[in-house]
Amino acid sequence: MNITFLPIDIEKAHQRIAPFIHKTPIFTNAFLNNWVGAELFFKPENLQKVGAFKARGAMNAVLNLREAERKNGVATHSSGNHGQALAWAAAQNKIPAFVVMPSNSPQVKIDAVRGYGAEVILCEPTLQAREETLAEVVAKTGATFIHPYNNVQVMAGQATCAKELLEQIEGLNAIVAPVSGGGLLSGTALSAHYFGKNVRVFAGEPALANDAKQSFDAGKIIPSTNPNTVADGLRTSLGDKTFPIIKELVVDIFTVTEDEILAAMRLVWERMKLVIEPSAAVSLAAVIKHKKQFAGQRVGVIFTGGNVELNKMFANI
Amino acid sequence: MNITFLPIDIEKAHQRIAPFIHKTPIFTNAFLNNWVGAELFFKPENLQKVGAFKARGAMNAVLNLREAERKNGVATHSSGNHGQALAWAAAQNKIPAFVVMPSNSPQVKIDAVRGYGAEVILCEPTLQAREETLAEVVAKTGATFIHPYNNVQVMAGQATCAKELLEQIEGLNAIVAPVSGGGLLSGTALSAHYFGKNVRVFAGEPALANDAKQSFDAGKIIPSTNPNTVADGLRTSLGDKTFPIIKELVVDIFTVTEDEILAAMRLVWERMKLVIEPSAAVSLAAVIKHKKQFAGQRVGVIFTGGNVELNKMFANI
Fold it and tell me: For chain A, what are the domain ranges?
């Protein structure tokens, strides 16, 4: 295998971040088990700090800064949970954070980043504007750029989620996670490989943002082209650090429609009483769609986050 | 004290129902602690079987049936969670269940009762129609009527919720629960009295359905008059078995407005990622409104259930 990641990287990450993160519990649901015909073990990272697994990777990256780097803080570009997570991790470590966000980000996410004390720099909603603005911020502040996923410390942090799941539930046959940039998926695959026994890793991806599936099938990274899925956390492209791991260790990527994502999300709200965001429902949607693949198995399903804009929903009560 | 309930009744109920119910975990939230200025320990009974604490009381009542009673099953009238809970408890025990529901009940609740295999009998949405229809059902089927709250086995079952909370969290100063018929509140007060050390019990109640507060202040039951609060689980009146306990053991009842209920519910969805129903948010709304009362204390807050009609909310996504 061409992968330079070692189990010790993930173990060290876990030890390092453990005092700061929640060890999220495992949820089960008799109705969903019955419906899918498998034993599902849900890892609800919507209950994680900042409402998403991103707290793990961001905290690990911040804790890995050298002393000289700490005083200038950290910077990133993010429309979503990584921005909140980095702001939170920086605040916990009493260092500055700068988050470049597209001007069309949901207000709830901008407010949340600011709520953790980070400086938000708004930019045009294009990848080019994001990267240029970030470069300016880094040049001006000397902050260390923490990439949302294409960063080995972030990946090691995200890997702790599946490591925990494997410690909590014995005899898993499979784990299913959503894929976007691949930070969580590559980490999940690494943990399954190193800490599991024949645990097969699958991904779910919105059909409207199926660049990971295309890349997986083609054997090379095919970037996403401004996809417009309701799963707003899954719109970015794979990275050159995440893709090789995914290519080598993931069994398959299942794409799901917008309706399938929303139906799965609603099932979780209704049946499990958990607020998950559309991106988080993609893993369950993939399991439901491909239930034959999982028949009779013990399947870990990662709910990635729960940061939903509730304004419109509550307007109707 | 004039109360005939003994600790052993609650202990036996807990032993009896334990194999069937979830021991719901305790949730905490740094944001809410900070906002209220107290340490809050949430008991999320929205994660309970059937999505509400009512599973406890219904199961205890069903498990207390005599052998001769079991074959004719159980009956009740309920627009909400008690109907589902009794249907579930009956199904678990393989006995028939008959649930009289007002014809304007949310479809999701009618479907849920039927989903557990119970027979639903719809009636006009008046108390008189409910009681008459129930009497007919009981006469025809020989089923045992299990009152939603004014039943000592139901009360003992509901009391197990606070008993668990007291076992899970040491040194609680107070517990806050919503009040409607008083099954949960009387059970909570009994458990705090018997199993807690100086644990003060408070209730939250919608101002639009403030019959319990009126009754508490007047020292006699003042029935509710068809109240129209968004907290649809809190529209009924106190019972002659629940009120004496509440009068004797509860410190105060705090009323909250519709806006306060919905704001508290939204906070829980947004910050704790838990789907709770409006009735469940009444306890937190009361704590927020009266935070001076709880300053610096360790406060248990019961979230009663999570059965919300999501159609309208999801129509807007």
Answer: 7-52+151-313, 55-145
